[in-house]
Specification:
7-stranded mixed beta sheet; Metallo-beta-lactamase, Chain A; alpha/beta
């Protein structure tokens, strides 16, 4: 219950219930993000809702009964240490799920970390707000030196001040949407380490890996007065041989098709699959929409993220995993469902075992559940 009362969660519900204005099918310049009166906006209209209905939904979210939103056992995890990433990945790619939307992507010898959140809470408060179910699969101290940290937007479950401060000395470059760098500079990250991109803009790292900011349908803000003053984005991470997609946070959007046409098909699409609710359908996706987004993107394989770490909605913590497995099968979308700390990628098995159903005293049993026999491509 405490998790639902944090400022982070309150802002999520308040804005999702219709905080957007002047946002109806806005034209953009060269496809870039609309920018009105100092605030960014979504091109696709998000309908307004009567104030009374907003308050009723908000009250239900904050004070209503919640069931199974947090696991009552420790989740199976593959612990990582300082030696886990000692061998560079120079051929193909490898993606390791650290938890929530934090992944470590290895490609062309580079190490790229997405949305680093290693703190205990996704909240502006030390002792109040959504608390992680269990520690991250690796500590920041054990992480290797990072070539790039990629950030999707500035919400607390994607941009954590403590994590950024701890990472700034072991990271060469931070890449993010427009104006998110304001936060990082305030936290002591050198300006020359920060690159900010508009939608469809890109930067190239080490002459081979392209990082392309692509549209997302979401919002931003870390307080009560800075709503939409920074941009949000999804990301394409690609080299000459492989193309990956990282959704960040987003509702269903027409732009998935254009992203797929311009940069797909994707070897792996890491797409949000959690923190959804009928009350805020435009800024987070249901599992049905997660699978549909993979189809629109032309994804060869779907890896659900943004679940299994924090209590950020009313659905059971395991529901996103159960639903997306069933739905992906009906659409013939190959799935990767790693445990936290587990890697997928070229020449690795693709895990599909329902590990979230296995009690902690039977974690070893998971090793006996065969993954898909094919390997990555």
């Amino acid at each position: 219950m405490v998790a639902t009362l944090s400022a982070c969660s309150f802002m999520r519900v308040k804005d999702a219930l219709g905080g957007y204005r002047n946002n109806a099918n806005l034209p953009t310049e060269s496809g870039h993000a609309p920018h009105l009166e100092g605030r960014f906006a979504n091109p696709q209209q998000i309908p307004e809702m009567p104030f009374s209905k907003k308050m009723a939904i908000l009250a239900k979210f904050m004070f209503g009964k919640k069931t199974n939103t947090v696991p009552d056992i420790q989740l199976p995890t593959l612990p990582l240490d300082a030696g886990s990433f000692s061998t560079p990945v120079t051929e193909g790619y490898r993606v390791t799920w650290i938890g929530h939307s934090t992944t470590l992507i290895e490609m062309d010898g580079l190490k790229i970390l997405t949305d680093p959140v290693f703190g205990e809470r996704a909240s502006p408060f030390k002792d109040f707000g959504p608390k992680r179910f269990q520690p991250a699969a690796i500590s920041i101290a054990d992480l290797p030196h990072l070539d790039v940290v990629v950030i999707s937007h500035d919400h607390y479950d994607h941009l954590d001040m403590g994590s950024i401060k701890a990472l700034k000395e072991k990271t060469d470059l931070f890449v993010m949407p427009l104006d998110v760098g304001t936060h990082l500079r305030h936290w002591g990250v050198e300006a020359e380490k920060i690159i900010e991109l508009d939608w469809w803009d890109e930067t190239v790292v080490a002459g081979s890996v392209r990082l392309i900011a692509t549209p997302a349908r979401h919002f931003s803000g870390r307080g009560m007065s800075d709503k939409n003053k920074t941009l949000w984005a999804s990301w394409v991470i690609a080299n000459q041989s492989h193309s990956l997609f990282f959704s960040g946070d987003t509702g269903m959007q027409e732009a998935f098709s254009e992203i797929g046409q311009r940069f797909g098909p994707f070897d792996l699409a890491m797409i949000e699959n959690g923190a959804y609710d009928p009350a805020w359908p435009n800024v987070h996706m249901s599992p049905e929409e997660t699978v549909e987004a993979a189809v629109m993107l032309g994804a060869k394989r779907l890896m659900p993220i943004h679940w299994g770490t924090f209590d950020l909605a009313n659905h059971p913590w395991y529901e996103p995993a159960e639903r997306v497995q069933m739905l992906a099968a009906t659409r013939n979308i190959p799935l990767a469902h790693p445990r936290q700390g587990e890697s997928v990628g070229t020449d690795l098995p693709w895990p599909i075992a329902r590990w979230w159903q296995i009690p902690v005293d039977r974690v070893a049993d998971i090793e006996q559940v065969p993954a898909i026999q094919e390997t990555g491509s």
